[in-house]
């Protein structure tokens, strides 16, 4: 009898595997190409600004892609001292840090209460917070300014020079107030995703609600907290319109100070100092983003709940 060998059931067909493999390789190639193009689109302008910040004034009249003949670090010194970017930088740091402290101090307890407790008017509060997500703060900066002007007029006897306007602390409060809806919305959603069994176990051990929130829920919500810190930091640091309106005096933020430097350099044409000011503005954002992104990924990897 003739034996006919049947093909192995476990061996994949070579002809059917090749098209899928080719499509996968083509998809990876397209992905790598797009990611590389996006990275270059971000890295090349940053590198160009960094290079231009080290050039002398005369070098800007040649090719813009040439490397500096000598590293002129004095451009940064001039930007910090002569252009007052040093004081503007400190004002931005103060306003940003205070804004983050204020928004987290209000949003974390509020989000925890909304996520875990039932109280009269809870639906209305959530609806109001959700509606606040669609309010662009740039559209209400003029009413905020007029409100602060009226408050200063009411307190003119106690504060002749004014209190609410040209006050970095008040500016940080405005930043925090305008970012509360987004912060509470994101933290509430994350708190609700955490199983309640963790809180029940802590309550059986005698932990108070405040201790449960601070020592159990808050560490478990680290990915969400890191996310809101990142987004709010970028919003506060890069803000221009609100700080320009509410800080009309000398205590400006670095974004407004950079505009003043740009306006002044139109006549002097000292572009090296101008680009040095841009680097001073960019570097803190890049550093904070890199640090927060690393912690965010670590928190998301370790923050899962095992069943």
From TrEMBL:
Outline the extent of the ABC transmembrane type-1 domain. 89-292
Tell me where it mainly resides. membrane
**InterPro entries xref list:** BP-dep_ABC_trans_perm, MetI-like, MetI-like_sf
Could you name the domain of life of the organism this protein comes from?
Bacteria
Q: Please indicate if the UniProt record lists Methyltransferase as a keyword.
A: no
Secretion signal span? none
Q: Which residues cross the membrane?
A: 29-50, 88-115, 127-149, 169-191, 212-237, 274-292
Q: Which parts of this chain are annotated as the region Disordered?
A: 1-22
Topology with respect to the bilayer? Multi-pass membrane protein
Where is the protein found, in the record's own terms? Cell membrane
- Kindly state one GO CC term assigned in the UniProt record: plasma membrane
A single Pfam family, by name? BPD_transp_1
A GO biological-process term: transmembrane transport
Protein family per UniProt: Belongs to the binding-protein-dependent transport system permease family.
Q: What is this protein called?
A: Carbohydrate ABC transporter membrane protein 2, CUT1 family
Which species is the source of this protein?
Actinacidiphila glaucinigra
Q: Write the lineage as a comma-separated list.
A: Bacteria, Bacillati, Actinomycetota, Actinomycetes, Kitasatosporales
